[in-house]
Each structure stands twice: as structure tokens, then as C-alpha cells.
Amino acid sequence: MLRVRRITKSDPLYAQAVDLRERVLLSPLGYNLGRFLKEYPGFEDRLEHFVAVIDHPKGERVIGTVCLRPEGKPGQESTGRLTQMCVDPQRQGEGVGNMLLSALERRAFGELNLPELYCHAQDRAMGFYERLGWTSDGPGFTEAGIPHHKMRFRPEARPDLIGTEQIADEDLSAGPSVDTADHQL
Ligand SMILES: CC(C)(COP(=O)(O)OP(=O)(O)OC[C@H]1O[C@@H](n2cnc3c(N)ncnc32)[C@H](O)[C@@H]1OP(=O)(O)O)[C@@H](O)C(=O)NCCC(=O)NCCS
Questions:
Q1: Among 58, 5, 1, 3, residue whose Cα is nearest residue 166
Q2: Is the whole model's pTM more than 0.85, yes or no?
Q3: Ligand 1 atom at minimum distance from 100 CA
Q4: pLDDT computed for residue 162 by the predictor
Q5: Using CB atoms within 10 A as the burial measure, which of 48, 50, 106, 159 is most buried?
Q6: Which residue ranges form the domains of the chain, and what is each CATH number?
Q7: pLDDT, tens digit, for every residue of 116-144?
């Protein structure tokens, strides 16, 4: 059965999520996690990690992942950034990305009470976000050599996301808050 879980970096599934990010997102841009951590110090520590998992004879297998970074002063977060969204190429087009996005939105609006979300969407993926009510904001720009647009989402567009039950399997300890960084992968 396909399900979405929120995990910490100490969860065994974190390594699978990193492997997927490296294969689908980072390595096409010339990155691995080591270079990512070095160039964006502190970024990974502030992320909440969501994984889409299926059962496998050898244990749970991660087939998709996405991260949420609340931004602003602790307790007064003014926005949240969606980042590192990717689905195993062999499982794309099956609704996995949709499930991950919905889970992240429920966490952001139903639990953290964030007023809005944003992301830097690769142009080729904009249609994916638009289908769930996200809108582009401002002119396109190049990030990591690839055309992007900033996209935003406010919960008024989806009242069903507010006040939903917690989806987390594990509780995340709150790390230090960081300011918005506009040019991270
Ligand atoms: C973009 C991505 C996360 C989408 O995940 P997915 O599991 O394939 O998406 P889903 O199957 O949940 O699709 C949900 C809807 O979005 C549509 N969709 C998916 N990818 C799309 C794209 N690139 N452009 C336009 N629409 C897209 C699907 O057709 C589907 O529409 P429907 O509900 O009308 O049937 C995935 O294709 C991916 O990992 N791509 C490579 C990495 C990447 O580009 N990440 C995003 C960086 S900003």
C-alpha cells in the first residue's frame, strides 16, 4: 500500500530519500548531498522530510520525497518553502507527487498554521503545481542552470487542508529558524 510518512533524519528511510534526491534532482545538476550540504550550510537541518513509501519483501521502499522548510522567526513563521520534490522515474504519473504535495500542504496549513507556501519550480514541472492551485509569481529566472519560476500557494484555495488530522509518524524537534534564502536548489 502506498502511504506518505513524515520522518526525521535518523529514520532508516532518510538514506533512501537522499538516494532518490541525488538520482532524480541533484545529480543532473552536478550535485550530490555532500556538495549540497557544503554550499547551503544549515539548510538540510531545518527541513521536514516527507517520504512516499511502498511495501517490499525487503522492507519499506521510498518512491518519492519532498521537504518543507518553515521560514521566519520561531513561532511566527511567515511562509514555508517546498523543496526537493521528486518521484522515482519508474513511478511517475501514478499520483505519488500529488499525495506528497497534499501531505505537505496539510502539515503546513493544518498543523503549522503557515499563511502560505512557495517553491522554485523548474519550468518543466510548473503544470504539476498548477493542477493543485499553485500560481506563478514574477518573471522566470535561472537557478542551477535551469529555467525556474517562483510559485505560491495560499490555503484559501483549498479549505479541506485546514484542521486535518496529523499525518506524522514521528515528531520533529524544531530547529533554529532561518531567513528566506532565494537561491537554493
Ligand atoms: C514533477 C513530479 C514530482 C510529479 O510527480 P508525479 O508522481 O509524476 O505526479 P502525479 O502522478 O502525482 O501527477 C499529478 C498531476 O500532475 C500532472 N503532472 C505531473 N507531472 C507534470 C509535469 N511535469 N507537467 C505538467 N503536469 C504534470 C499529472 O499529469 C497529473 O495530472 P492529473 O491529476 O490531471 O492526472 C515528478 O514528475 C518528478 O519527480 N519529476 C522530476 C523531478 C522534478 O522535476 N521535480 C520538481 C522540481 S520543481
A1: 5
A2: yes
A3: 12
A4: 60
A5: 50
A6: 3-161 (3.40.630.30)
A7: 999 999 999 999 999 999 999 999 999 98
